[in-house]
Design a protein that fits this description.
Layout (H helix, E strand, L loop, with lengths): L1 E7 L4 E5 L4 H10 L7 E4 L5 H12 L3 E6 L2 E5 L7 E2 L1 H4 L7 H10 L1 E4 L13 H9 L3 E5 L2 E5 L7 E3 L5 H11 L5 E5 L5 H12 L3 E3 L5 E5 L8 E3 L4 H13 L3 E5 L7 H9 L3 E4 L3 E5 L9 E2 L11 H8 L5 E5 L10 H6 L3 E5 L2 E5 L8 E3 L3 H13 L2 E6 L2 H4 L5 H6 L4 E6 L4 H5 L1
Parallel strand pairs: 2-15, 3-14, 6-7, 10-11, 18-19, 22-23
Antiparallel strand pairs: 1-23, 1-24, 3-5, 4-5, 7-9, 8-9, 11-13, 12-13, 15-17, 16-17, 19-21, 20-21
Helix pairs in contact: 1-2, 1-4, 1-7, 4-6, 5-6, 8-10, 8-12, 10-12
The protein binds uridine-diphosphate-2(N-acetylglucosaminyl) butyric acid.
The site of uridine-diphosphate-2(N-acetylglucosaminyl) butyric acid has 24 residues, from helix 1, helix 5, helix 6 and helix 12.
Length: 427
């Protein structure tokens, strides 16, 4: 079992390059199935979620050619299978996007129920409601989600809650349906806009992505394209918080500052100095962070995927902060790990009351999910001395070359096997 070994207590200093956005990539890769011609996808992050999806595409019959570390060519013409098994999906949330993409391509899809990070119940009722409105029949049979349609027809769909996944899945199913589809109360995340731009670059007719109402006029064919994925908002935010939390000075390059507004606003409240450039932001922190309250919300609100990282920063702030989770039912499972490092956090339902302590103490901790794992790394970098982070496969799902990028900023972090651990050597 691999883990991260961190010798914390040093400020992060320097420049870091942000990779392509995981949550855009995991929507765009299945979307390639809708094309009648090969597509070239660039700026793909080198993360395990991307390799899992590429291997699923290949098992469905698509031909994948690696162009370089971050670009692939995908020829979907021979993708004749429509079943994504549990083994192929590997518990990923984004495997559900094969439902919309295969339904849009073949009028039929059978996909293992999506897994992903455990934040409590993660239903897909809004995805199913959307498919049904487009004329599909959806059933759960033998533990698989089965969706079929004679023909998909455009429809008006009002989402009962803002859902990234349902918005994406309905876009995928509707893009080649007959007539006009309107998604109301749609999610507005940057990756929704990126998916719409990708589909439009193949000849789709999608308007309004990035607003609460998306209009999709179905087209018969989608042609090949060459498309570069946007920078990862959450990876950028994670390095911004890591810079502030270690009292560092980091320029985060290859970002879209507009996607980072809510994160910038909150970091400024904690006392960080932020400079914005065209495609970079510089984050500098001197002294102890100030307290602040945060509520996570769908975009353009403060992203839930930054909640564990910013809570970790606030755990050493002067004063008491309240962090309220407005998207997921159970996204405070990491708090137990943070308290092992001396944080003083009381969780009451959807809110965490964080009483700032002076310092975190090094400890062995676990990554309970992807962003929680990133938060544990930040905590390890903050605490003077040696910490370890276990269960790092969660982190590898979404952060490209994290040890290399952090080492480039002066961090002392290594990926080790259990038998390399200093305690094992002593024994
Ligand atoms: N919801 C329903 N019914 C549905 C769909 C969603 O009740 O049919 C609820 C969920 O239970 C949740 C809320 O609506 O309370 C929002 O869920 P959403 O569908 O927006 O989440 P998702 O599509 O499953 C994506 C990201 C998550 C991110 C959320 C919110 C991907 C692959 N995942 O999940 O990212 O937290 O949107 O922004 O895009 C991460 O990257 O670490 C991650 C977990």
């Amino acid at each position: 079992m691999e883990k991260f070994l961190i010798n914390g207590g040093k400020p992060l200093i320097g420049r870091v390059h942000i990779s392509g956005a995981k949550n855009a990539a995991v929507a765009i890769l299945p979307a390639v199935l809708l094309s009648d011609e090969p597509c070239i996808i660039e700026n793909l992050p080198q993360i395990s979620d991307v390799s899992t999806l590429l291997s699923s595409l290949s098992k469905l019959g698509a031909e994948i050619k690696t162009i370089n570390k971050t670009s692939v060519s995908i020829d979907p013409r021979r993708a004749s299978y429509f079943v994504v098994t549990k083994e192929m999906a590997q518990g990923m949330r984004a495997s559900s996007y094969f439902l919309g993409a295969l339904l849009g391509r073949n009028n039929k899809a059978r996909v293992a129920p999506p897994g992903g990070c455990d934040f409590g119940v993660r239903p897909i009722d809004q995805h199913i409601k959307g498919f049904e409105a487009l004329g599909a029949y959806v059933a759960i049979e033998n533990g698989m989600v089965d969706a079929r349609a004679k023909e998909l027809r455009g429809s008006s769909i009002y989402l009962d809650m803002v859902s990234v996944g349902a918005t994406i899945n309905i876009m995928l199913a509707a893009v080649k349906a007959k007539g006009l589809t309107i998604i109301e109360n749609a999610a507005r995340e940057p990756h929704i806009v990126d998916l719409a731009n990708f589909l439009n670059s193949m000849g789709a007719d999608i308007m309004g992505a990035g607003t609460g109402v998306i209009k999709i006029r179905g087209v018969e064919h989608l042609h090949g394209t060459q498309y570069s994925i946007i920078p990862d908002q959450i990876e950028a935010g994670t390095y911004m918080v890591a810079a502030a939390a270690t009292g560092g000075d980091v320029t985060i390059e290859n970002v879209t500052p507009k996607h980072l507004e809510s994160i910038i606003a909150k970091l400024v409240e904690t006392g960080a100095e932020i400079e914005e450039f065209d495609e970079a932001v510089r984050v500098k922190m001197t002294g102890r962070p100030r307290r602040c309250n945060i509520k996570t919300m769908p975009h353009p609100g403060f992203p839930t995927d930054m909640q564990p990282q910013i809570a970790t920063l606030l755990s050493v702030a002067e004063g008491t902060s309240i962090v309220t989770e407005g998207v997921w039912e159970g996204r405070f499972r990491y708090v137990e790990q943070l308290t092992l490092m001396g944080a003083d956090i009381q969780v009451d339902g959807k809110s965490a009351v964080i009483t700032g302590v002076k310092n975190l103490k090094p400890a062995p901790v676990r990554a309970v999910d992807l962003r929680a794992g990133a938060a544990m790394i930040i905590a390890g970098l903050m605490a003077e001395g040696q910490s370890t982070v276990e269960d790092i496969s969660h982190i590898d799902r979404g952060y490209e070359l994290i040890t290399e990028k952090l080492s480039g900023l002066g961090a002392d972090i290594k990926r080790i096997n259990d038998y390399d651990a200093p305690s094992a050597k002593l024994a």
